[in-house]
Every structure is written in structure tokens, then in C-alpha cells.
Design goal:
By secondary structure, the chain is an alpha/beta fold. It is about 35% helix and about 20% strand. The protein contains 20 helices and 26 strands.
Length: about 550
């Protein structure tokens, strides 16, 4: 049996005018800034007017550790939102904006899939409403102003060897990871080593996604540490006097984007920080806006629950004062078999034993989520190759963990495939009396916070922090940064720092290679292992297959 591609399904969608979608949430058309007929930004004025309304219920969609087999977090987020609306609930979804880099690289689009998508799919995956371009421009304005400050006398006495602020580009381009700038003589400035990250790794992306409003945005931008002096004291963005102009560039980007699902239900798509070097969640302002307008809000967090869910709870919820009501853990039979030791080309055939072995990964994520006091359900994202025996074995395993696994067929059937999941989530929220709490207290030491995450979430036996890093953490505590949460940066493929160590390993150590202070975003990044902040294109990038057909329509974008 052949199936339509995601882009074919999206192109056939019967979209409603965006003002009509806004009406479902009570947003007047004059508070929507339209980008064409099918997408719009919600005005800051309207968002502020909703401040005193009661919040709806917040549902997080997370997953097992990702594999090349795919788990379908975004697809499930969209499917659950449609499913909740299909059973008569007022629901909205909140997801991240896709980056151009992965679209033209290996991953392809990121707007859901099958009959659980957000549209307009092509626009969302390409330039959308220009938010990423605005972030790129604001980031690089600061870069230009730093070099300009040094050129015109360096009043802040910046040590050019200790400029920490790199440039960004929303494209996978390994050639720009390390570069030398200001070559060409006296008139071009002082030559120095520099480099580029991808835009989603920018601290400005993290700041935009954590800021409450424009005032908070400018304050956070001003707090960015861009360099150090020879005496090792920090130089802030506000010292360069760039924060005001950067806020101007980001003013429109701060407004959440409203689009719709294939079933014409409202969807907010806003922001997209890396789930490694940053917290991997959509913006606080979009989530909070949705909670004021809908009874149920479904959102997602990047990568597996060990990274995405932990950071959602310990960074986003802590900073924004959010209390999630339920968690959906997405798992696929294919990915669990891969966690059980099978190679990708072996996943098509039935293998219940490999599935059972791989379930240990799922079980650990369920155990971890319980530590935050939030009830969880497993969504089995169905593939047509799944067998009844494999599905039943997975359900039995989850039941043995004190939870429930529900087969979801939203990719093939849209909301009809998630009604059972939606009903169970509502029942879980109505009947669970738990109390959400982050994993650690604000006043715990920075090194102790790192150790708590490593031991409680990754199940490591030890954390290796050398004297130099320990001293740096102590100095940050003395400087007033001790209450900040930790943003762990490690491989998404494993509980360890080894991407090939699948399942639920124990007896491992977590080495902390480097720590970075994201003073504007408001967290400490602990880098464990090699983390790539500027990806490269694969041998055969997706861009090779993307083109316009004779009718001017896009081909190859999923």
C-alpha cells in the first residue's frame, strides 16, 4: 500500500483563514498581524490583556532516547491536540519553529507528519514569519558592535583573546566553525580567531524563548557576557550599548506565531532553541498565552526525556512559574527494538525479544518523570510494520511499570487515532493529585546540581569535575549566579555520554568537559562530551532533492 507524502497531504489541506482560527481562542482579528492568509502574529497588547485569566492545563510530550528509526514527538503533539479537540475539549498546541539547517541537511521538515501536521508546512519549514532571521540579525549586530568597540579605542579594555561571543547563521556550514576575522590591514580592525554557530544555538534564541515581555527581553540581552578583560572581569552586552538596538530588531519576533493543524485547530509555533546547548522548548510567551486562551495546552521538549523533559521542568517551568499537569512519553516499536540492540536495517521484521530488551530505556524515562510529581502515559506512535505481538508486549511492559500505553494512529488517521490517548490524558489530569516540583532547589550548589541530574536522571555512579571547573563554578556562586539552574549538554542518544550506549546503562561516569555561563538566558551550561553547535551537511544533503516543479510548487521538502 502506498501513502501520500507529508507535503502532498499538507498541500491538500483545507485551511481556514487565520482570523477564523484566532476566533476559536477569542483573539480579535485586529490583534492578529497577518502574514498572508494562513499565519499571523498575536499582538503584545492582547497578550497583556489576558494576564488575569485562569490558566488551562499543561501537557508535555516527550520521548525515549531518539534513534534514526524516529519517535514522532511533534507528530504526536499535533495528533494529541487534534484528539483533545475531537473529544470536545478546547485545546491548543505549542511547538518550536524548525531551523533551516536541518531542513536542508539530514532531518528534513519539522511540522509533524502524515495526518497530524501543522500548516502551511512549506512556510513553517522555510522562512515562516522571519523570527530566526531577526535573531540572526540581532546576534550579529552585537558581534559587529563588539569588534567596532575594540577598533575605536576599546574603552571597556576587552581582551581580544577572550571575546566569547561568536557569530551565527541558520544553516549547516562546517566551514564556518572556526574562522579568522579582520584580516586585510589596519582599516579592517584587529585580527582574531572567531567562529559561527547555528542560529538555534544562539543565547539570544534561548533568551527570546524565556523572556516574559519586551522589558524582560532587553534586560536579559543586556546581561549577556560577551568578553572578558585582562583582569578576567566580564564585559556585558549593555557595556557595549547594543541591547536597545537588539530589542528593536527582536520586537516583532517576540510576538508568538499562530497557525493551524490539518484539522483547523489552533497551533502556536514560536522559537526553537537547541535541546543540547540550550533548553529545547518553545517560548514561554507562547505557552503562557496559550494557557490563557485554551483549557488544554499540549507542548513538547526536544530529544528524549533525559534532556528535553528534565530541562522543561528544571529550566522552563522553574523560570516561568509553570506547573505541568501530565506527561506523554512517545515510543515506537522500531526505536525500542533499536534500543534493544537491532541495527536499523533489521527493524522491519518482528522481534519481540529485542523489543522487551529495549523497553528498559522507556522504563527509566517513566521512573524519572515520577520524580517530578507529574503523571505519565505512553503513546505508542504506530508504524504499519508493527506487529500485534510487539504492541501487546510493549503494553504489558508499561503496565508492569504502573502506567498505561495507548496505541496511537494519528499519522494515518489524524484525531481518530488519538481520541483514546486524549481521553486518558484528561482522566489522568482530573484524577491525579500529585504536586509538580523541580528536581533540585535553587539554593543547591552548582556542582551539586550537576551531580543531582547525572545521578538521578542519567543514573551515573559519579560525576568527574576537575579542579579548574570546580573553581569556576565556585567563582560564579560568589558572583551571584549560584541560584541558576543547570543546562546539561550531552549526547541525546544515550543516558551516558557515549551515543552508542543504548538501553538503560548503569555504572557509568559523566565527565564535565567545560562549563559556560549564559547570564542572559539565566542558566549554567555543563558540557559533557563533544557537542556540535554548528552542524555540517551529510554526504547527500536533503537540499539535493528540494526543488520547484513546473507548477512552481516545492518538491522534496519531506
Amino acid at each position: 500500500m502506498t501513502y501520500k507524502s507529508d507535503i502532498e497531504i499538507a498541500r491538500a489541506a483545507r485551511k481556514q483563514p487565520i482570523a477564523q482560527v484566532g476566533e476559536k481562542l477569542g483573539i480579535p482579528s485586529d490583534h492578529l498581524l497577518p502574514f498572508g492568509h494562513d499565519k499571523a502574529k498575536v499582538s503584545q497588547e492582547f497578550i497583556k490583556s489576558q494576564a488575569n485569566k485562569e490558566d488551562g492545563k499543561l501537557i508535555l510530550v516527550t520521548a525515549i532516547n531518539p534513534t534514526p528509526a524516529g519517535e514522532g514527538k511533534t507528530t504526536t503533539t499535533v495528533g494529541l491536540g487534534d484528539g483533545l479537540n475531537a473529544i470536545g475539549k478546547n485545546a491548543a498546541i505549542c511547538i518550536r519553529e524548525p531551523s533551516l539547517g536541518p531542513c536542508f541537511g539530514m532531518k528534513g521538515g519539522a511540522a509533524g507528519g502524515g495526518y497530524a501536521q501543522v500548516v502551511p508546512m512549506e512556510d513553517i519549514n522555510l522562512h515562516f514569519t522571519g523570527d530566526f532571521h531577526a535573531i540572526t540579525s540581532a546576534h550579529n549586530l552585537l558581534s559587529a558592535m563588539i569588534d567596532n568597540h575594540v577598533y575605536w579605542g576599546n574603552a571597556e579594555e576587552i581582551d581580544v583573546r577572550r571575546i566569547t561571543w561568536r557569530r551565527v547563521l541558520d544553516m549547516n556550514d562546517r566551514a564556518l566553525r572556526s574562522v579568522v576575522t579582520s584580516l586585510g590591514g589596519v582599516t579592517n580592525g584587529f585580527p582574531r580567531e572567531a567562529g559561527f554557530d547555528i542560529t538555534v544555538a544562539s543565547e539570544i534564541m534561548a533568551i527570546l524563548c524565556l523572556a516574559e515581555d519586551l522589558e524582560d527581553l532587553q534586560r536579559r540581552l543586556g546581561n549577556i557576557i560577551v568578553a572578558y578583560r585582562r583582569d578576567r572581569t566580564p564585559v556585558y552586552c549593555r557595556d557595549i550599548k547594543a541591547d536597545g538596538a537588539m530589542t528593536v530588531l527582536l520586537q516583532q519576533a517576540m510576538q508568538p506565531n499562530l497557525v493551524q493543524t490539518l484539522e483547523n485547530n489552533p497551533a502556536f509555533i514560536h522559537g526553537g532553541p537547541f535541546a543540547n546547548i540550550a533548553h529545547g522548548c518553545n517560548s514561554v510567551i507562547a505557552t503562557k498565552t496559550a494557557l490563557k486562551l485554551a483549557d488544554y495546552v499540549v507542548t513538547e521538549a526536544g530529544f528524549g526525556a533525559d534532556l528535553g523533559a528534565e530541562k522543561f521542568f528544571d529550566i522552563k517551568c522553574r523560570k516561568a512559574g509553570l506547573s505541568p499537569n501530565a506527561v506523554v512519553v512517545v515510543a515506537t516499536v522500531r526505536a525500542l527494538k533499536m534500543n534493544g540492540g537491532l541495527a536499523k536495517d533489521e527493524l522491519g521484521g518482528e522481534n519481540v525479544e529485542a523489543l522487551k530488551k529495549g523497553c528498559a530505556n522507556l522504563g527509566r524515562h517513566l521512573e524519572n518523570i515520577k520524580k517530578f510529581g507529574v503523571p505519565a502515559v505512553v503513546a505508542i506512535n504506530h508504524f504499519v510494520t508493527d506487529t500485534d505481538a510487539e504492541v501487546e508486549a510493549l503494553k504489558a511492559y508499561v503496565e508492569g511499570q504502573g502506567a498505561k500505553a495507548i496505541l496511537c494512529q494519528h499519522w494515518e488517521h489524524g484525531s481518530e487515532g488519538t481520541k483514546a490517548l486524549a481521553a486518558h490524558v484528561v482522566d489522568m489530569i482530573d484524577n491525579f493529585e500529585g504536586q509538580f516540583a523541580p528536581l533540585y532547589a535553587d539554593d543547591l550548589g552548582l556542582a551539586a546540581k550537576i551531580e543531582t541530574i547525572a545521578k538521578e536522571i542519567y543514573r551515573a555512579d559519579e560525576v568527574v569535575i576537575d579542579k579548574k571547573i570546580a573553581t569556576q563554578l565556585k567563582n560564579w556562586e560568589k558572583a551571584g549566579y549560584g541560584a541558576l539552574p543547570i543546562c546539561m549538554a550531552k549526547t541525546q542518544y544515550s543516558f551516558t555520554t557515549d551515543p552508542n550506549e543504548r538501553g538503560a546503562p548503569t555504572g557509568h561516569s559523566i565527565p564535565v568537559r567545560e562549563v559556560r555561563l549564559s547570564a542572559g538566558a539565566g542558566f549554567i551550561v555543563a558540557i559533557c562530551g563533544e557537542i556540535m553547535t554548528m552542524p555540517g551537511l551529510p554526504k547527500v544533503p536533503s537540499a539535493e532533492a528540494i526543488k520547484l516543479d513546473e507548477a512552481g510548487q516545492i518538491e522534496g521538502l519531506f
